[in-house]
Amino acid sequence: MKYIVVGLGNFGASLAKKLTEQGNEVIGIDTDMNRVENYKEKISHTICMDATDEFTVSGLPLKDTDMVVIAIGENKGANVMATALFKNFQVKRLISRAIEPLHEKVLYAIGVDEIVHPEEESAERWAKKLCLKGVVDSFELGDDFSIVEVNLPPKYDGKTIKEIGVRENYGLLVLTTISNREEKSLIGKSRNINKVEGVASPNNILNKNDILVVYGSNKDIKRFLKG
């Protein structure tokens, strides 16, 4: 996949490096030439430019880019301006970093697809979420193994864990499942809630909206999600 990461501070640079290491094409952007030079050997491409300048941004390969991540953290004004600019160019998917609650509300008003909170979430976790379609969340156990929450691939709807052969075919252990259910309040208003179903049984029947919590190697998790 092709990514643009705007802002090569600690989080942005770490994310861009992780995405590059996983075989993606990444353009890292920053206004600081020293940062651009420091990471030119670790990120696919690095560019020193102002991501709030419409003319400059228009020269980027936006139509060929799968995702843009605005990782600017030290300057909220530049973060918002860059986010709005990339949104106006109608990029395929736009993710932006939020520093505080009001900042987050502004970003959602602009129309970002997702918010990053680097103070709470690691670049490694975000790299996995962005690279593996279907990953909801993850917990790293060293470089090669993880516990991850993944959306059930649609083709397994209505099947049991045993029928899928998660362990036999993919080498993964299903720890538990999380179901999404609709619940009505006392006044009749509906809301969706996630319910952890306890220790997984081989005979558990899975539904299309279920989330599986699985343990295994990163390469086997990737293979399972690809089906």
From TrEMBL:
It holds the Pfam family TrkA_C. This is TrkA family potassium uptake protein. Signal peptide: none annotated. Residues 1-116 form the RCK N-terminal domain. InterPro entries: NAD(P)-bd_dom_sf (IPR036291), RCK_C (IPR006037), RCK_C_sf (IPR036721), RCK_N (IPR003148), Trk_Ktr_HKT_K-transport (IPR050721).
